[in-house]
Each structure stands twice: as structure tokens, then as C-alpha cells.
Design brief:
Elements: E1 2-6, E2 11-14, E3 18-20, E4 22-25, E5 30-33, E6 37-40, E7 48-50, E8 55-58, E9 61-66, E10 71-72, E11 83-86, E12 91-96, E13 101-103, E14 118-121, E15 124-127, E16 132-135, E17 138-141, E18 144-147, E19 151-154, E20 158-160, E21 163-166, E22 171-174, E23 177-179, E24 184-190, E25 193-194, E26 196-199, E27 202-205, E28 208-213, E29 224-229, E30 232-235, E31 239-242, E32 249-254, E33 260-267
Parallel strand pairs: 1-4, 2-5, 3-6, 4-7, 5-8, 6-9, 7-10, 8-11, 9-12, 11-14, 12-15, 13-16, 14-17, 15-18, 16-19, 17-20, 18-21, 19-22, 20-23, 21-24, 22-26, 23-27, 24-28, 26-29, 27-30, 28-31
Antiparallel strand pairs: 24-25, 29-33, 32-33
């Protein structure tokens, strides 16, 4: 699809690769990509839109590439915003080619303000590369989110209900952030440092906090790492673990700062 308007209430299933280089998908129907999904526009035109409660569902391997691939989830006059589903077993990767790429939402009216725009992940969602990308729809996670580099900046509150992994030097930024009771929040740890979670609002802790030393790295006794910042902390983690286990030290939570969390290496 390279332009124009795809609309209707039915389901369009693409068994081969769906390549989307421009245009708008609207109507209350669903577009399902089974054989692969590639979103790319190197020329910044004509742009991308999801509107009218349209669902775009990835069931295979998907990616977004290019400079002009930002999707407007409330682009036109049809009531309701678009929704992107990454299904269980599917993988979708953001490969931004420039800093500031976004999936955004346009305010149309009081009754069509874009607040129902949604990115729903039940598979694996990857943020690759350096730089920042901005997601304005609500991001719901029942699968795996893997922030491998740069910054994944969420413009809405987020609840992690499954696995969120943040690599060393990578950052997940959000307003309010909640780690649910059955969820795991994992931070990569290496000679480069530790992953970062930056919440400008309330961080509600729960579930499992995990540290993942990479490539055999073991921090020295007495070393410490800050990994989360926030305005307010609520709740507590039910479990804190390290995978793989360390040999000479154990990692202990440091909550002495009311607006930050850290971890320190203590000799075993």
C-alpha cells in the first residue's frame, strides 16, 4: 500500500508480506499481516494514518524503517483512533533512522480526541538502534518489550503486565509507570553501565525486579548503579533476582533516595 485510503468494516488478511509505504487505513475493520509487515517511507510523503478504530495486526515478523514512517493514529474525520496489535508469537522491531521518530495522535474534537489510540503487544516488541522514538498511543504489554538501545519515550502512563527488558545504556521514559504483580522488570548490566527507567510521575513497584549481567560481567564489591528515577514511589517488588547468578557478590536494592532506585554489589 503506497497511498490513498483503505476503509471498510471487514477483515483484510495478507498472507504474503504487507509493505506499507503511505496512505491511510480506516473504518472499523482489521488488516492482518501474516507473512510479514514492513512500514517504510524514505521520502516523508504521503504519510501514514490509522483512523476510525481500524486495527492493524502483525502476526509474523514486522518492522518499521525510514524517515517518514511516523503513523498518525487519529488522522482523519472518522470517529475513533487506530490500534496496532502485535500478536502472541509475532515480533515487531522499530528501526528508526533519525532521532525523534514517532507514532503520534492528532486531536480532532472533544469526542474524538485520540485517547483510545492503542499499541497492544502480546508478542515481542523491540526498540533497536540509537536515538529516541516517541509513542503517543497507550502502550499495553502482555508479551515482551525489549529496549535494546537509545530511548523509548512513552507519552502516556504504562503498566507492564509481562516482561520489560532494558539493555545497558538504553532508557524507557514514561509518565506514570506500574510493574504489575505478575510482571518482570529486567535491567541489563555490563561494563557500559545499567539500563534506565525514567518516570516523570509515579513509579508503582510490584512483581519481579531482575538484573541481567551480560557477557560474564560481575560488578566489583562496593560498586553501585542507579537504574530508576521518578517523582513518587509506591508499592514494592515481591522478588529481586539476578540472572545469571553472580559468584562473588549479590545485588541489593538501594532505596535511600526518595526519587530514585539503585542497586549495590555486596560481597557474598
Amino acid at each position: 500500500m503506497s497511498g490513498g485510503l483503505l476503509t471498510g468494516a471487514g477483515t483484510l488478511t495478507v498472507t504474503g508480506q504487507l509493505t506499507w509505504t503511505g496512505g491511510t487505513m480506516a473504518g472499523t475493520g482489521t488488516t492482518i499481516a501474516i507473512g510479514g509487515l514492513r512500514i517504510q517511507n524514505n521520502n516523508n510523503a504521503p504519510g501514514f494514518g490509522l483512523d476510525g478504530a481500524r486495527v492493524l495486526e502483525n502476526r509474523g515478523f514486522g518492522s518499521v524503517l525510514g524517515y517518514g514512517s511516523g503513523i498518525n493514529f487519529n488522522v482523519g474525520s472518522e470517529f475513533g483512533s487506530g490500534r496496532f496489535f502485535n500478536s502472541a508469537g509475532a515480533t515487531f522491531t522499530f528501526h528508526p533512522f533519525y532521532d525523534g521518530y514517532s507514532w503520534h495522535v492528532k486531536y480532532q474534537s472533544v469526542d474524538d480526541d485520540g485517547s483510545d489510540a492503542l499499541i497492544d503487544n502480546a508478542g515481542t516488541l523491540i526498540k533497536a538502534g540509537t536515538g529516541s522514538i516517541y509513542l503517543y498511543p497507550v502502550l499495553a504489554n502482555a508479551g515482551t518489550i525489549d529496549v535494546q538501545g537509545g530511548t523509548l519515550s512513552l507519552q502516556q502512563a504504562m503498566t507492564n503486565a509481562a516482561l520489560l527488558r532494558i539493555a545497558p545504556l538504553a532508557t524507557l521514559a514514561a509518565g506514570d509507570f506500574t510493574n504489575a504483580a505478575d510482571a518482570t522488570l529486567a535491567f541489563g548490566l555490563s561494563t557500559d553501565g545499567i539500563g534506565q527507567l525514567a518516570a516523570t510521575g509515579t513509579f508503582t513497584a510490584g512483581g519481579t525486579l531482575r538484573f541481567e549481567p551480560l557477557d560474564g560481567f560481575e560488578p566489583g564489591a562496593g560498586s553501585s548503579y542507579g537504574f530508576a528515577s521518578f517523582d513518587q514511589l509506591l508499592g514494592s517488588f515481591a522478588q529481586i533476582d539476578t540472572d545469571p547468578p553472580l559468584v562473588n557478590v549479590e545485588l541489593q536494592l538501594d532505596a535511600s533516595d526518595p526519587q530514585a532506585l539503585g542497586v549495590r554489589a555486596v560481597p557474598i
